[in-house]
């Protein structure tokens, strides 16, 4: 292979070659490992290597070791939730061919959250299994509603109409959720805290029931990589190349809904991860979804871990929920994307 410094070989070309992508994969994996170490060692109380290693071996003899033992499931949940949201965002952008697509912007997270709140307020729902199924149902119904509204009128489901329909659905769902919560003082405190989105208080007992849904969603999404590459060419071109467009979109959407629903059930609605991460990955590995999807999962985990750590540091001795931190990071990126792409080009 020609060296990166050779004439005619640009940095972008190297970055998107197989060798460059493998290099970036190793870098991302290293960053993920470092982020995990930072997450278990830094917070409202800093701990040393000896305490970290002791806690990993199952010892909780000291306060610092007990702190690490509490942070370990929190770190695992941050990795899982970030990976799920990053992957779901990449899939949604591929399905809709919309650079602004995101589980939060398209109203999927808001629909899942509203369904969970309805289950708690009106049906006395308490178990995590019930939360999972209800959140997934709400996410699926919200995604179908947004796509149906965005498909009305001339031109079908254009990226701009989908973004507008998703934004309207998200606002409406949030307003209805608030209207349900306000008269219920018995559940208002816990639900409002959950609605912000966070990974605090995580436990392995709470994470385990989510794994089957996340694994199935992961499989559906990763298997859709080739179909998303074809859909990027347009529906007519994809059909001409042998893709079953409706089936391809449906299968990828099922995977994204499973990931969003399960993550929202355990963490609450966390926004902007699915928007920011795929754009970062395109800068690293190009537009091939066979690379974008796994990179989005890894990078999403890194982003959510670092956001969680930042939330612990900036609000010492208290903590700032990760959903607030991701909003601070994601909002400027959203504005930048809109400025880079004229509205008529969406």
Question: How would you sum up this structure, described in words?
Answer:
The structure is a single chain. The chain has 346 residues and is mostly helical. The chain has one domain: ABC transporter involved in vitamin B12 uptake, BtuC. Helix content is 74%, strand content 0%. The protein has 16 helices and no strands. Helix 4 packs antiparallel against helix 13 (245-267), helix 4 crosses helix 14 (273-285) and helix 6 (128-151) crosses helix 7. It is globular. The protein starts with 10 loop residues before the first helix and ends in a 6-residue tail after the last helix. Residues 1-9 have low confidence and may be disordered. It is a multi-pass membrane protein. Its main location: membrane.
Helices and strands in order:
Blueprint: H1 11-15, H2 18-41, H3 49-56, H4 63-96, H5 108-123, H6 128-151, H7 159-181, H8 185-196, H9 204-207, H10 211-223, H11 225-231, H12 235-240, H13 245-267, H14 273-285, H15 289-314, H16 322-340
Helix pairs in contact: 2-4, 2-15, 3-4, 4-10, 4-13, 4-14, 4-15, 5-6, 5-7, 5-13, 6-7, 6-13, 10-13, 11-15, 14-15, 15-16
């Amino acid at each position: 292979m020609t060296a990166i410094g050779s004439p005619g070989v640009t940095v972008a070309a190297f970055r998107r070659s197989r060798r460059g992508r493998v290099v970036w994969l190793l870098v991302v994996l290293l960053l993920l490992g470092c982020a995990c170490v930072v997450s278990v060692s830094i917070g409202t109380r800093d701990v040393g290597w000896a305490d970290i290693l002791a806690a990993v071996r199952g010892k909780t003899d000291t306060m610092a070791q007990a702190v690490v033992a509490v942070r370990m499931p929190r770190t695992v949940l941050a990795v899982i939730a970030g990976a799920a949201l990053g992957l779901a965002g990449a899939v949604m952008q591929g399905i809709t061919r919309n650079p602004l697509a995101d589980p939060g912007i398209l109203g999927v997270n808001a629909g899942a959250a509203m369904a969970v709140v309805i289950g708690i307020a009106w049906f006395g729902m308490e178990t995590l299994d019930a939360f999972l199924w209800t959140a997934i149902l709400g996410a699926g119904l919200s995604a179908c509603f947004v796509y149906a509204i965005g498909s009305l009128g001339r031109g079908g489901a254009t990226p701009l109409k989908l973004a507008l329909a998703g934004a309207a659905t998200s606002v409406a769902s949030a307003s209805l959720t608030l209207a349900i919560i306000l008269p219920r003082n018995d559940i208002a405190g816990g639900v409002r805290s959950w609605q912000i989105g966070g990974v605090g208080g995580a436990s392995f007992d709470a994470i385990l029931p989510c794994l089957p849904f996340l694994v199935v969603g992961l499989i559906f999404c990763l298997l859709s990589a080739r179909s998303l590459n074809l859909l990027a060419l347009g529906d007519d071109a994809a059909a001409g190349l042998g893709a079953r467009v409706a089936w391809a979109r449906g299968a990828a959407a099922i995977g994204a809904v499973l990931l969003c629903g399960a993550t929202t059930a355990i963490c609450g609605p966390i926004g902007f991860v699915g928007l920011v991460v795929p754009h970062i990955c395109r800068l690293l590995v190009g537009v091939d979804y066979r690379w974008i999807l796994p990179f989005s999962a890894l990078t999403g985990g890194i982003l959510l871990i670092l956001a969680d750590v930042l939330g612990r540091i900036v609000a010492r001795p208290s903590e700032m929920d990760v959903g607030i931190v991701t909003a601070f990071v994601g909002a400027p990126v959203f504005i930048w994307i809109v400025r880079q792409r004229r509205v008529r080009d969406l």
